Here is the input.
Amino acid sequence: MTYATAAMARVDSAWHGDELELSEVEDLDSVVELLREVVGDDADTALLFVEEDDEWFAVVRIDADGDPRVFLSDARAIATSEIAGLFAEAAIETADVDVDDDADGEADDEEEGTRVDGDPVGDPALLTDLGTSAARLLELCAEEGQLPSDVISAICEAAGCLDVLDKLRGV
Here is the structure.
């Protein structure tokens, strides 16, 4: 299986990015430690995007003052992917997060025709302050034809770091 990573750090309102190698990490704590090494101590926000074989993606968020928050687009990946397994515990612990984060305080009704192929798990609200609400993240995951890289691009566009992601991807 092949995977791609993008570590993004926001320092003083500017985004910076780098790739991470996850082959030597054993658990989420190791991932967080590696991410902190790569992004440095000055980062206000650090994000790690991981996608594997166009099947699933994960987002890990670390803020200067808190524990890591995790979102995994497809819980089924936990059983089939060692990398997804790294994020499993944190994603499952936050699986009951309320997705009612709309500006008007009303929850979105599930639209007719929306499908969720492999139940997302984790904290869907981890990107709300970066322009992607929990409802929007879940909608992106359920949208037919969306690849993990498409969803990550949409997230980065909303956060203002798509140009950094594109440089990492060689686009």
In short: The first helix runs from residue 28 to 39. DSSP finds six helices and six strands in the chain.
